[in-house]
Amino acid sequence: MIEYIWHENTNVEGLSPVTQVYGVCFDEMGRILLLRQKGHGWNIPGGTPEAGETPSETLIREVYEETTVRIGAHELIGYQEVVGDKGSPYYQLRYAAIVERVDSQQPDPDKGETHERLFIAPEDAMTYITYPQYRGIFEAAIKWYRKK
Q1: Bridge partner residues of 36 (DSSP)
Q2: pLDDT of 38-58, one tens digit each?
C-alpha cells in the first residue's frame, strides 16, 4: 500500500529523488487555481523536474505549460514523502504561489491538449480534489497566503 506522508517543512536538503513539484497558486481574489486534464480529476498544477532544473524553475514552467498562468512570488511549504511504492521513498515538493498573469489558454506542449482550468475558493478545495493527503497541503498554503 502506498502511503503519502505530509511534512510541513521547508528544509528539503538531501531529499532524493524529487519526482514532482506542484503549487497551490492564489489569484488576486485569494482563489486557488486548479486544472483538469482529459480523463483525470481536478488537481493543482505541477509536474516532473527536467535535468538541471531547480524546483522553483520546474514550478514556474509546469504551471505555465499546464494552465497558461504566470506565477510570481512563491515559496516551498513542504513535501510529501511517498513510501510503499517501487523506488520509494521518493519526494514530491509543494509550493504556494501568487498568480501574476492569466493568459489565454494554449495546449500543454507535453500533452498537446488544453486543460480545463478553474479558480475556486480555498474552502472548496477538498470538494474538487479528493486525495485526503492534500488537506495538510492546502492548510499550509492558505496559512502562507494569509501572511502575504
Answers
A1: 42, 116
A2: 989 999 999 999 999 999 999
